[in-house]
Amino acid sequence: MSGVGMERTQEIADRVERFVREVVIPFERDPRRDHHDCPKDELVTELRELARAAGVLTPHILADGSHLSQSETAIVLAKTGLSPLGPLACNTAAPDEGNMYLLGKIGSPEIKERFLKPLVEGSARSAFFMTEPAEEGGAGSDPSMMTTTCRPDGNQWVVNGRKAFITGARGAKVGIVMAKAEEGACMFLVDLPDPAITIDHVPNTIDSSMPGGHAVVTIRNLRIPADQMLGQPGEGFKYAQIRLSPARLSHCMRWRGACIRANEIATGYSNRRKAFGKTLIDHEGVGFMLADNLIDLKQAELMISWCASVLDAGSLGTNESSMAKVAVSEALMRVADRCVQVMGGSGVTNETIVEQVFREVRAFRIYDGPTEVHKWSLAKKIKRDWQKANP
Q1: Hey, CA dihedral for 329, 334, 338, 341, is it positive or negative?
Q2: Non-local CB neighbours of 316 within 8 Å, separated by 6+ positions
Q3: Does residue 224 sit in the same domain as residue 246?
Q4: pLDDT tens, 326-336?
Q5: Same domain? 66 vs 47
Q6: How many CB atoms lie within 10 A of CB 154?
Q7: What is the CATH number of the domain that holds 31?
Q8: Domain tally for the chain?
Q9: pLDDT given for residue 159 in this prediction
């Protein structure tokens, strides 16, 4: 990163951090939550207006429409993650951030004006419809199992199927729908809500940071104009990879910020709380846990930085993003767990965000591919490389 780029990025990051710490954090106890404890859109809208006024709305996309590099984005997104509400306020949250990245990379001028612009402006939320119900044999970690179908009908495509764990579907205005045609996977953009897409159920989940929860939906005879397909029939998985590799890394960036904050809270607690004649920090068992947290946070930072630099060089593949997803999610899980442990009973209450960070990071180990799937993918590469070297 050039000196000018770093100076600009640091200035953005500093503004974001001040905004999150001074403005967003006081909203963490705001009662505007649904029965799943997810923030309501009313709260998100207010926070985004405050971010707009502070000049930190969608800070990773500049006024001219250009995107910060991934190395620069890593610094900024970590600052938005200092509160679970920070990414929502600053418009860097999933799935919107990943969807904006995808549309910015491959969208036509018409697509960008109609679908990307309201996302960047923070006036709309989006949803990515790919995962399907396991009990129906649909696609999860294995996208080749996709059962949602699409077929051409004149200048339209007709989509039918079921989707599951669709983050933010309730309340979204923009949808990206994956379906299977004879040629292979296809990706479509749709306006939401649409009467052909019904929300069947929004289960209670361990995490609660994303508006709308993670819905199960049914798609019945959804008609989509042909010009709202991204690319050509059969190119859906290619475009999904353009989105998913950096999206995994963005999760790492945001949740690293959350764990930095959780560690700050645990550190403050350990320096104030006394037991057996001295503060907790002076007990090796506690002090060593906090030392391990610093090590894991630094390792996570370095892994994110490495993966971001590879992506900036244009050579990021699924192997690099898989390594980052595994290493960072597992490291942050250890950090969040230690923070709870250091704080004892206080760590499992909602008096601080520590217990929420623990829940959110536990879910992070699963979404965008569980640890075991990424390790399996890496193991297959190890085998292929060995066989190539030893014919």
Answers
A1: positive
A2: 245, 246, 307, 310
A3: no
A4: 999 999 999 99
A5: yes
A6: 9
A7: 1.10.540.10
A8: 3
A9: 98
